[in-house]
From TrEMBL, chain A:
UniProt protein name: Putative nucleic acid binding protein
Domain of life: Bacteria
Alphabetical list of Pfam families matching this protein: tRNA_anti-like
Signal peptide interval: 1-19
The keyword Signal appears for this protein: yes
Keywords of the record: Signal
Keyword hit for Signal: yes
TrEMBL record, chain B:
Keyword set, alphabetical order: Signal
Taxonomy, superkingdom: Bacteria
Annotated Lipid/polyisoprenoid-binding YceI-like domain residues: 31-180
Annotated protein name in UniProt: YceI-like domain-containing protein
Organism listed in the record: Olleya aquimaris
Amino acid sequence: MKKKLLLLLGILAIGSVLAYNYIYQDHRNISEETAEYKVTSTNLVEDFIKDVSTTQDKYLNKTIEVTGIVTAKDANSVTLDNVIFCTLSNSSTVALHSNTTIKGRCIGFDDLLEEVKLDQCTIIK
Amino acid sequence: MKTVLTLIMACILSVSSIAQDKYLTKTGQITFEASVPSFEEVKAKNEATTVILNTENGEFAALVFVKAFRFKNALMEEHFNENYAESDTYPKANFKGKISDFDFDSLNTTNKKMLYSGTLEFHGKTNTLTDLPMTISKNEAGQIVLSGTFSVNVDDFDIEIPKVVSNKLSKTVDVAFSFTLKKK
């Protein structure tokens, strides 16, 4: 009888831990994910301009690495070749006009400004 | 030769004068909340909205990346994207509208109330918003600051809330925005 009760309690405990972990699971950590695609800034934006929907399906919500020249920056964003706008997860120092690779999550193509937007970015090099 | 030069100068001048009429941001903030008291907060924040304001006539456009809405709870964020906003199919929401009686020269550091109207597209559905108030000011750095709140009904955007969670989710969603626009 006692054994059964203990077993039941044990199952209940494991069950609630699993449920808790499922409901309060962690957010994706983009900086620790491996990039699914590695592209240059100009190739990426050209693909979007040529065919938005196909390119969107390919890259949306994916972790990608984009390489280009830094054309603008401020405290928490970096722009590559005027066409890739990256929001950084942590402010970091990167030199203007330097060749840089950035890893981040593609959130879509901005057709107002013809830019690709990435968020939760980290600077690789 | 002189005429060619004048022509080129005229072109450059006209191009730059067009560009001067635009104010924009790429990091506009939008939050929405559909919480029900005493249940877990249903709230998300987006800091990646592109907004362009034409200061000649008060027309503005906002492009919202739906995937960029961040929730405290990762599972809630996943459900929002997969079941409600269906952000793989509808990755963007946008607002196109106009501020009534917009007068750029009247803007200063004190907050002014102005009305705006336009169309909001989300989840593949478009609805018209009419005469909503927003606050406009111009800060010391010369940037235009727009902010405001409005409410929308989830039914108007064809979003179905399953019965199981219907008591934990409000059918009216409160949206708040704050955009600091820089001269282009």
